[in-house]
Known about the structure:
Blueprint: E1 3-6, H1 16-21, E2 23-25, H2 39-47, H3 55-65, E3 72-76, E4 83-95, E5 108-119, H4 125-133, E6 138-140, H5 145-153, H6 172-179, H7 185-203
Parallel strand pairs: 1-3
Antiparallel strand pairs: 1-6, 2-5, 3-4, 4-5
Helix pairs in contact: 2-3, 6-7
Amino acid sequence: MNAYILRAKPHGIDQEEEFLSGQISVGWPCGKSLENCDRGVIASTLAKSYNTLSEISISMVDLFVHMPEGSIVLSPSINNKSLIHIFKTTSGYQYDSSKDNAACGNPHFIEAKHLKTVSRNTLPSPVFKSLSGARKTLSRISQHYGILDNYISSGFNVTKKIVNNTDGPIDATTVLYDLLSSEDEHIRLQAAIAVLNLGKNKKT
């Protein structure tokens, strides 16, 4: 069974509301559907539209195109950094040619049911750590599928304190882990140093 982290900003455009309405997407408009394409075909197709194309980008698109129905998808909220949207996919890969342009940027999509939005601090610890370390647009965390499935099946009941930035200050550790995903390299470096120091202080 499969589980992923997918950030709701395909092609650099905030699509959080579209995600919540039932369609998750990955960006990379390229003029055609990628259905039934293997990694090699995906790479050659994207190369026709993008001069700069990394292996990581190809891997992410390939991962999205082959995401199975029934997968669990975590998507960090853009509007509230302390929240995580949890989805379960209800279809495989689909393509919408009307959105295959720079303005929309999200022709490659998958239908998904929004199960619940939770505080990231209430996630099971292994999932929380994977989420904090995942900086790519799309990452696979299928090793945590069982934990997440149990978490969802239990009605998202947890014993950890829920953090909500509308109710009071956010835990400093949560803020540091959020900053590890910053697009600013300097901020990521400073956050990483702070996290390391935090670990050293706990040992002493």
